Amino acid sequence: MPRDPRQIQLEIDAARESLAATLDQLTYRTSPTRLKTKGRDAVQRFLQTPAGMATVGAVGLLLTFAVVQKIRHRND
Question: Which InterPro entries match (predicted)?
Answer without folding.
Answer: DUF3618
